[in-house]
Amino acid sequence: MVPRWRAKAVRDREKLFDFIAALSPQGALHVDVEISRAVALLAGSPELGRKGRVKATREYVVTPNLILVYRLRPSFRSSKSCAC
């Protein structure tokens, strides 16, 4: 699967990084690395996350306070792609 980030998701990730970095630059890097690891893991096993609370989404717990919400595209079964 090839993850595609929506523009809003990119902005949200940047805002999260900036918020955490203001308190702990090292913590912000750690969270960003964990997000990258989760996306890489989901790229290989996209159905690993649980069924999402919002219709047609899935969720993967990155940390106890951070849940990655993603959507498998309809062509997932053939092209292995998703929109994050």
Poorly predicted spans = none
How much of the sequence lies in strands comes to 25-35%
N-to-C series of helices and strands: EHHEEEHE
Strand order of the largest sheet: 1-5-4-3-2
Helix content: 40-55%
Basic shape: elongated
The biggest beta sheet reads: 5 strands, mixed
The whole-angstrom Rg is: 13 Å
Seen as an oligomer or otherwise, the chain set is single chain
Distance between the termini: 11 Å
Number of helices: 3
Number of strands: 5
Would you tell me the structural class of the helices and strands? alpha+beta
- Name the average pLDDT: 88
Question: Any overview of this molecule?
Answer:
There is one protein chain. The chain is an alpha+beta fold and 84 residues long. 49% of the residues lie in helices and 25% in strands. The protein contains three helices and five strands, in the order βααβββαβ. The chain has helices spanning 7-23, 25-44, 76-79, and strands at residues 2-4, 50-51, 58-63, 66-72, 81-83. The protein has a five-stranded mixed β-sheet with strand order 1-5-4-3-2. The chain starts with a strand and ends with a strand.
Key structural traits:
84 residues; five-stranded mixed beta sheet; 5 strands; 25% strand; elongated
